[in-house]
């Protein structure tokens, strides 16, 4: 519907109408390319919900002040939209804001909004200036505690773009000459020379289809450009020109350009070479380069980007690479082509409204999974640097960037598995991923963030990351050194917007650190995230104790559908064998969290996550193409679940406690799941589960408690095994072990789990049960397992008196009676911020991204 409604597609063949030598070339490939682009558009859109309801409205708690105004593209009735924003519901106040008509569907006020109720509306305007009636009036509330981050208007950005080249790396200009004088003593000089030499050795002259080599050519362009900027030697520039001439000698390949990654790489390679080597090309070649850049940019902007990216839930490919590359192309040609200038403004407004992390994430962690942060790191660093330089405003003061150091440290610790909740969660690294190290180095140089500095100080792997090397060599930014984390580093961090809590025992002793990660996310299951609300992972010394299973090899093969992103692959729960569907609707929330010195706690609510089957066309087609069904046998379908709330604790130094509250409208089987790289030793009578890592010399003992008996089984087989022919990353195909403790059938259940981790031959203490009271070493635990009584949980450390209580109106805190202010509140008594204190928390209000 959206494609049919878009008219600006006609711009593609007419923008260059005066260039007769290239008109036939454009027309020959235009319709094929547009067909492929539209096909890809439909496929990508099918996997990404697009907003249908304007945002924000009164039911939303806004994430940032100012909040962007977003209008669904289906409500845009003509060429432009005009926005009206005011604290006067009649829009008659002298301070009311009336935007100019713009072709996109978002408006950023670019100023801090006063606290109070704001009203807004929009109307469509055609190219002749004819104005359609205003929409209904919407309202939202700005509160004093809303985080503030305002960016300058586009006019500020625009007036500071340098007239001369280079523009792509204009932010390096002030220090570049000084950096060149010292280049040979720079620690990355030899690596730069080696990468440049490898790029010089590549020969594309004999390729009959040079466009098919664009990914490698773009990498070469980066390395050649870095060496050229630092050494100013002609051989690097000449090689860049020679590579581009290989492209110019062939007709643009529609299939390559239809791939958004390849299209971006093409635009960047051409734009970077064009602005640095402009005089080395003939006028004919210059025009040919301009034509290819603008034709590609026009096709994507008018048929796939405009109206969609403002409203899309999260288009991961676009934000990873395409946004940056298309921005760079527009930056180079904005003063020669009106569409390039328009796209430049669009990019600025889009980023300041929906970036750096979807616009609905201030955490510093990555909602699309820790592994896929790496694909976004260069764009996150580059765009913030460019926009900061050209506006004079520090874009790294955005809340997401200010928390990014913590996100790096907690979500993927050095020498460890990642926190483990998205595609690629199974990857291991003896060091931080190279690009993560590079991004941490970038933050350290620009902000001095202590966590980012420590993360990149534990090794110097960023020195081999070539795409960000030019910035490190030429920016003049010095990096601090931080070999130890500060003494007040939190034991646990709550990434509230993303829906994760990660707790550690000792980040300064990674070889013996116990790390507990817990996930219940409002982003649901989509893109590179999995169906794993209320799932946890547990690591010792970076190795899996209990961790999700499977391999990321193909996005939609049977293994992925049934044994990787499927709920059954995670340490969560199945209801009658059914898990959570692949849809953003299948979301969860962490509604409470405490960060104590002795008790780390979170409460996740996944009651809405078991919501049937996926309605997303992409997933429906994937099942059909693999001759599979979204059936109960495959873990999909309707369930009568009413409640799934999981309380989870890391009781320092080595005990994990989980308390599950489960309710359904009718009797169901409750399948409690646990996954281990090693076989479980099962004592079914006592419900004790033991695993041992003999190589790393640690053992885990888990014990389940419930008033209902359970049947415990384990298997080392997948529902659909990975296709080892698709192995590309040195995967370890040793099958893990998956355990199911099946309770019921019953309409309600409570399950208490106590997990102890011991290393170097130490034995887990025996858990002594005395009626409702359990003694586990220094910890006394009382849990209400009778479903006919209100849920409650009490935990006491008999030595230091650290206490947790849930569901009790009165509780004993350090020998004194404490009266809860709220029903069913959680209460903690522990050392927090350096002092013993008591805190109480009920469910926190969930930020709303609005209906999609």
From TrEMBL:
InterPro entries: Chondroitin_lyas, Hepar_II_III_C, HepII_N, Ig-like_fold. It comes from the Bacteria. Residues 489-694 form the Heparinase II/III-like C-terminal domain. Its main location: other. GO terms for cellular component: cell envelope. It is found in: Cell envelope. GO terms for molecular function: lyase activity. Residues 51-203, 216-458 form the Heparinase II N-terminal domain. This is Heparinase II N-terminal domain-containing protein. It comes from Bacteroides oleiciplenus YIT 12058.
